[in-house]
Amino acid sequence: VGTSCVLTCPHKSNTTMVTWKISPEVGGPCTLGYRADQNKTGSTNCRGSTSWRFRPDWDPALEIQQVGRAHEGNYTCEVVATEGNFHKTYHLTVLVPPRLTLYCDDHGNPVCEAAAGKPAAQISWVPESNSTPKEEGHDKGTVTVLSKFTAHSTNMTNTTCIVSHPAGNQSKSIAC
């Protein structure tokens, strides 16, 4: 989320036409096209954040600026050249890093929350805990994971919550 994404397309020397067909999971389809004989580009129903990376006669790559969950879906590039037709399809999945919160509950137990991540984050503890995380799904495809530290001994001073996620790992420590 929030970064730029470049999807490459087969680059051929004698390209006559390049077409990007975009089918988002939410919203209507979009098409970007380029005709070499007229040196023209065109688009149908495309948002401003999705466009050619450079000039399509130099590089037929597609760039999505400020990627958001609305960009998820299928992206297919078709290149028509003298050697034949070439296709490349991507399925874009957007990762949303969770917000990490660590606090002490009313009984003095550390509680770790990885809020609104996509996909769901994994939570572990140092020292180890046999805690069973609870997951709550949200309507935008994100998941909040909550884990309560259960101590094996009562002389614990500092615990660390480790949140593992494809968008990046995080950790915080607390003494309750």
Structure in a nutshell:
The chain is mainly beta and 176 residues long.
Describe this structure in words.
The protein is 0% helix and 50% strand. It has two domains: 88 residues, Immunoglobulins (Immunoglobulin-like, Sandwich); 76 residues, Immunoglobulin-like. The protein is mostly beta strands. The chain starts with a strand and ends with a strand. InterPro entries: CD200R, CD80_C2-set, Ig-like_dom, Ig-like_dom_sf, Ig-like_fold, Ig_V-set. It is a single-pass membrane protein.
Radius of gyration: 23 Å
Write the CATH fold name of the largest domain: Immunoglobulin-like
Structural class: mainly beta
Highest CATH level, the class of the largest domain: Mainly Beta
Specify the helix fraction band.
under 10%
Q: What's the N-to-C terminus distance?
A: 34 Å
